C-alpha cells in the first residue's frame, strides 16, 4: 500500500492541475483537451476502445510471440557457433538502427488491405532485436566454473545448453522481453498510421484527429497506454513466475 | 597430446582394484601456449601417486602449478607430455566415467536450482532415477549438515553453506576420488575448521581418496596423510611429507607432531 499510494496521489494531483490549467487558462481543445472531456469520451467510447484495443492487442501479441520465438532460435544458433555470432551481431545492429516503422507502408502495399499480416510483421521485427541481443549476451555469459563443472560431468553440448546456458540466460531474456512488450504495442498501433486494415487503436486515433475530435483521439491514446501497460505488467508477472529464485532472494 | 593407454607397466599396478592407486601422475610436464612468445612452463617432470583412500594435499606458493596439477588429474587440461592415470584408466576416460567428484574455490552452484536440485545435478546427468536422486541428495545434505535447507535457493545461503552444498554435490555420485581446489579458501577461520572436520569425517566414512589444493600450511597438515610441497616456475614437487597425527580433532591440533609437521612443511616451502 505504501508503495502504491504515492504514485496514485501524484497522478491524481497532476490530473487536477491539468484540468485547472486547461479551464482557467482557456487552452484550446485542439492543443490540449481537459481530462474531464477525455474522461467523458473514454466512458462514451468504451465499447469502441475495447474493440480497437483487442484488435491492436492481438496484433501486438502475435508479433511479440512470433518475434520472440524467432529471436530465441536465432540466439541459440548464434551462441553455438562463433562465426554465426560474429556475423549476426553487426547485422542485428544495422537492422536495429533502421526505423522499422518506416517499413509499414511498404509492407502494407505487399498485402491486401484486409490483412493483419503487415502490422504483425512490423511488430515481430521490432520485437526480434531486443530479445535476440539480450538473450545472446546471456547465453554467452556462462561462468567459467559452470563450464568446467559441466566438463567434469562429461555433459554434451545440448545438455549444457539445457541445464546451464538457457536457465542462466533467463534474466537476460526477460530484460529483452520487457523492452519488447512495450515496443510491440507501439509498433502495432503506429503501423496503422500508414494504411492497411483500419480496426485498431492507431486507426481510431488518426480518424478522430482528422475529424478534430481531439478528446476522442486522446481517449484512444489512453486506451493504447493502458494496453502497453498491460503487456508490460504481464511480462513482469511472467518473469516472476519463471524465476522463483530471484523472488525468494528478496524475502 | 593425449596420454597413452594404461598399458605402461611402470605406471599402472596390474593387481585388483582394491590396491590400485587412485591417481598416478607419471613424468608430467605442462607448458601453456607452447611455441608462442607467451609460453609459460607450469609443471616440470612431476610424479605423484595417490593411494586408495589416501588424503594428499598439494601446497606451494602462488604460481607453483598446484591447481594446474589438479586440473590435469581432472582432465580439464591435457599434459604437454607424460601420463595421468585415474583409477587405472587414462584421465580422459576416468572423467567421462565420472570417477571423481570435484569442488572448486567458488561453490559454482546453479542459482536457479534449489539446494537439493543442485546436489542432484551430477546424478541427473548420469541418468539416475528421480526417487533415487532425491534420496541420495538428501543423504548427502544430511552429511554436510544442510538437510533443512534442501528447498532453499543458493542465493539464500551464506558462502560457507554454499561451499558445503558444492561438497555435497561432489560427493553425490559417491566417487572413489575427490578433487578439491582450495574449497575453503574464501571462508572465515571458524567455518573453515568446522568444514575440515566434516570433510575428514566424510572421507573416513566413504573411504574416498582425496587430492586437496591449499595454500594454508596448517590446513594441509591437519587434513592430510601426506603433504606434497611444490615450488614455482616451473612447478616441481620439492618434498613429500607424511603426516601421522594421533587424532584429527581438537587434540590433534594441539599435538606436538602437528606443530613439528607444520615446521617441516614451512621449511620445505622456504628452502
Automatic annotation (TrEMBL), chain A:
Keywords noted in UniProt: Cell membrane, Membrane, Transmembrane, Transmembrane helix, Transport
Where is it located?
A: Cell membrane
Q: Which Pfam families match?
A: BPD_transp_1 (PF00528)
Annotated ABC transmembrane type-1 domain ranges read 49-238
Give the way it sits in the membrane: Multi-pass membrane protein
On whether Plastid is a keyword of this UniProt record, the answer is no
Q: Mainly resides where?
A: membrane
Q: Does the keyword Transit peptide apply?
A: no
Segments passing through the bilayer: 60-79, 91-111, 117-136, 180-197, 217-238
GO annotation, biological process: transmembrane transport
GO cellular component: a single term: plasma membrane
Which PANTHER family does the UniProt entry name for this protein? ABC TRANSPORTER PERMEASE PROTEIN MJ0413-RELATED, ALKANE SULFONATE ABC TRANSPORTER-RELATED, MEMBRANE SUBUNIT
What does the similarity note say? Belongs to the binding-protein-dependent transport system permease family.
Task: Please report the name of this protein according to its UniProt entry.
Answer: Nitrate ABC transporter permease
What is the organism field in this record? Actinoplanes utahensis
Amino acid at each position: 500500500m505504501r508503495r502504491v499510494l504515492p504514485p496514485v496521489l501524484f497522478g491524481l494531483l497532476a490530473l487536477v492541475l491539468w484540468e485547472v490549467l486547461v479551464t482557467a487558462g482557456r487552452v484550446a481543445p485542439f492543443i490540449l483537451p481537459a481530462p474531464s472531456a477525455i474522461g467523458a469520451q473514454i466512458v462514451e467510447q468504451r465499447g469502441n476502445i475495447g474493440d480497437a484495443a483487442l484488435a491492436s492487442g492481438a496484433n501486438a501479441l502475435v508479433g511479440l510471440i512470433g518475434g520472440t520465438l524467432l529471436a530465441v532460435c536465432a540466439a541459440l544458433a548464434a551462441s553455438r557457433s562463433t562465426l554465426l555470432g560474429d556475423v549476426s551481431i553487426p547485422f542485428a545492429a544495422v537492422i536495429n538502427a533502421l526505423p522499422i516503422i518506416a517499413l509499414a507502408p511498404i509492407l502494407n502495399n505487399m498485402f491486401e488491405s484486409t490483412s493483419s499480416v503487415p502490422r504483425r510483421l512490423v511488430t515481430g521485427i521490432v520485437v526480434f532485436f531486443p530479445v535476440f541481443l539480450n538473450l545472446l549476451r546471456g547465453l554467452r555469459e556462462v561462468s567459467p566454473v559452470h563450464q568446467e563443472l559441466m566438463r567434469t560431468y562429461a555433459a554434451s553440448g545440448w545438455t549444457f545448453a539445457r541445464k546451464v546456458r538457457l536457465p542462466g540466460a533467463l534474466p537476460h531474456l526477460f530484460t529483452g522481453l520487457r523492452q519488447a512488450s512495450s515496443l510491440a504495442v507501439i509498433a502495432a498501433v503506429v503501423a496503422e498510421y500508414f494504411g492497411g486494415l483500419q480496426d485498431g487503436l492507431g486507426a481510431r486515433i488518426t480518424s478522430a484527429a482528422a475529424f478534430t475530435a481531439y478528446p476522442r483521439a486522446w481517449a484512444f491514446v489512453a486506451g493504447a497506454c493502458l494496453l502497453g501497460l498491460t503487456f508490460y505488467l504481464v511480462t513482469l508477472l511472467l518473469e516472476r513466475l519463471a524465476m522463483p529464485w530471484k523472488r525468494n532472494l528478496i524475502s | 597430446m593425449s596420454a597413452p593407454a594404461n598399458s605402461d607397466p611402470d605406471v599402472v599396478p596390474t593387481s585388483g582394484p582394491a590396491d590400485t592407486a587412485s591417481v598416478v601422475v607419471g613424468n608430467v610436464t605442462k607448458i601453456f601456449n607452447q611455441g608462442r612468445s607467451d609460453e609459460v612452463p607450469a609443471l616440470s617432470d612431476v610424479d605423484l601417486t595417490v593411494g586408495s583412500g589416501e588424503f594428499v594435499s598439494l601446497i606451494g606458493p602462488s604460481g607453483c602449478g598446484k591447481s594446474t596439477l589438479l586440473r590435469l588429474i581432472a582432465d580439464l587440461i591435457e599434459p604437454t607430455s607424460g601420463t595421468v592415470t585415474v583409477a587405472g584408466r587414462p584421465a580422459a576416460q576416468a572423467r567421462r566415467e565420472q570417477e571423481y567428484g570435484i569442488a572448486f574455490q567458488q561453490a559454482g552452484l546453479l542459482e536457479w536450482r534449489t539446494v537439493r536440485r543442485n546436489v542432484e545435478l551430477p546424478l541427473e546427468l548420469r541418468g539416475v532415477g528421480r526417487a533415487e536422486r532425491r534420496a541420495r541428495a538428501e543423504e548427502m545434505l544430511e552429511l554436510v549438515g544442510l538437510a533443512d535447507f534442501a528447498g532453499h535457493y543458493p542465493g539464500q545461503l551464506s558462502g560457507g553453506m554454499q561451499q558445503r552444498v558444492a561438497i555435497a554435490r561432489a560427493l553425490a555420485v559417491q566417487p572413489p576420488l575427490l578433487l578439491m581446489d582450495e574449497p575453503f579458501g574464501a571462508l572465515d577461520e571458524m567455518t573453515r575448521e568446522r568444514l575440515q572436520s566434516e570433510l575428514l569425517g566424510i572421507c573416513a566414512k566413504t573411504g574416498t581418496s582425496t587430492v586437496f589444493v591449499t595454500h594454508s600450511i596448517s590446513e594441509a597438515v591437519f587434513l592430510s596423510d601426506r603433504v606434497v610441497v611444490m615450488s614455482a616456475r616451473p612447478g616441481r614437487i620439492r618434498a613429500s611429507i607424511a603426516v601421522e597425527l594421533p587424532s584429527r580433532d581438537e587434540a590433534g591440533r594441539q599435538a606436538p607432531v602437528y606443530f613439528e609437521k607444520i615446521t617441516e612443511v614451512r621449511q620445505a616451502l622456504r628452502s
